[in-house]
Structure formats: C-alpha cells, structure tokens
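Worked example 3 (structure in, sequence out).
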C-alpha cells in the first residue's frame, strides 16, 4: 500500500509540468489607447490594455506588472527604464494609465506585461 502511494505521488509530480504547459496561458491584444503599435499618440499618459487567453476554463488574472522601456533590448532584459509598475494585485487589464517618466515627442516606447493567474483555485505565476 505504501509503494502505491509513492507511485501515485510520483505520477502527479511528473505530470504537473505537463498540466501547467497545457494551461497555455498567453497575453494577446496588446493595445495602447486602443491601437496596435500606434505611430503617435496625443496624450502624456497613454492607457494600455491586453487580454489573456487560455485553453483552460476558470483562468483569471490576479496581478500584473507593466514594463515600459526605451529600447527592445532593455525590454528583453526585463528593464523598464521608463516605467516599471511593480506587481499590482488586480484583475484589471483595460485602460491602465502610464505612470512613468515623462514621454517626449516622437519618442519610441516599447512595453510588455507580465501577469499572475489563478487556475482551479491554485495560484501560479506564468510568463
């Protein structure tokens, strides 16, 4: 009986990474002022939005972190030199206002969002 419990636990531990991968949570629809890759904006505090998509049911965002950088290289290194929102405990993903350094006219800006989701009453961080 004891061996059987160990085997079941081992199967669960081995299957866990597959289950997490199967969740297939991804962020889509990154928008700034409801536009995809806008060439110019007429606001000092643009608002950002995104959607989470998953192949699973009952997946809900519980927190986010927005990184805004002056170059794609900095963003790839997770360095938000213009703004790092820090972890924000919220399910909001629409019209999040930029709160970083003052943006200059004709300045190129790159951003991404990291998120935390809850799935089937268990919390996990993805991305």
């Amino acid at each position: 009986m004891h061996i059987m419990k160990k085997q079941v636990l081992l199967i669960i531990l081995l299957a866990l990474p597959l289950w997490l991968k199967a969740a297939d949570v991804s962020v889509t629809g990154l928008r700034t002022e409801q536009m995809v890759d806008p060439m110019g904006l007429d606001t000092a505090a643009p608002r950002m939005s995104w959607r989470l998509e998953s192949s699973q049911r009952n997946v809900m965002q519980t927190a986010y972190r927005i990184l805004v950088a002056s170059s794609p290289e900095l963003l790839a290194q997770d360095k938000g030199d213009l703004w790092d929102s820090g972890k924000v405990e919220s399910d909001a993903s629409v019209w999040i206002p930029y709160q970083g350094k003052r943006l200059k006219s004709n300045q190129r800006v790159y951003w991404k969002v990291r998120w935390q989701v809850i799935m089937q009453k268990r919390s996990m961080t993805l991305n």
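Notes: Confidence is low (pLDDT under 50) at residues 8-22. The longest strand covers residues 59-69.
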